[in-house]
């Protein structure tokens, strides 16, 4: 099931009501995104850390891969992830973080 990540500590200070609305939007967007995914993709996401953020223009799906096998599976699932994310926003991207020591993040615009 969807479990939102906590926002980074280095975010600029925002009006508390705006920040609350932003977190609520991200939570709802994450729940809807997960709902749009097929059961196999939902299972894959449940084995990774992931979140949907609204920083910048559009939505960003952030996926943290805990091992190389899951990283490979996530990379192979990019078309399915993109399809589900496009249900929510025409301006979206996917950012995939591989396991520690396996390189830098990859970002895909959809």
Main attributes of the structure:
single chain; alpha+beta; four-stranded mixed β-sheet; 4 helices; globular
Explain what this protein looks like in three dimensions:
- 43% of the residues lie in helices and 19% in strands.
- It is α+β, with helices and mostly antiparallel strands.
- It has one domain (16-109): 2-Layer Sandwich (GMP Synthetase, Chain A, domain 3), CATH 3.30.300.
- A four-stranded mixed beta sheet has the order 1-2-3-4.
- β3 (92-97) and β4 form a beta hairpin.
- The protein is globular and about 40 Å long.
- The two termini are 24 Å apart.
Short description:
With 110 residues, this protein is of the alpha+beta class.
Strand and helix map with partners:
Blueprint (H helix, E strand, L loop, with lengths): L15 H21 L2 H8 L2 E5 L5 E6 L3 H9 L1 H9 L5 E6 L8 E4 L1
Largest sheet: 4 strands, mixed
Query: How many whole angstroms does the radius of gyration measure?
Result: 14 Å
CATH class: Alpha Beta
**For the largest beta sheet, what order do the strands appear in spatially?**
1-2-3-4
* Class from helix and strand fractions: alpha+beta
Q: Looking at CATH, which topology would you report?
A: GMP Synthetase, Chain A, domain 3
| Strand count | 4
Q: Categorize the overall geometry.
A: globular
Q: Count helical runs.
A: 4
Helix content: 40-55%
**Please, what is the average pLDDT?**
87
Measure the end-to-end span. Answer: 24 Å
Sheet-strand content, in percent, reads: 15-25%
Stretches with pLDDT under 50, minimum 5 residues:
none
Helix-strand sequence = HHEEHHEE
Q: Give the tally of structural domains.
A: 1
CATH architecture type: 2-Layer Sandwich
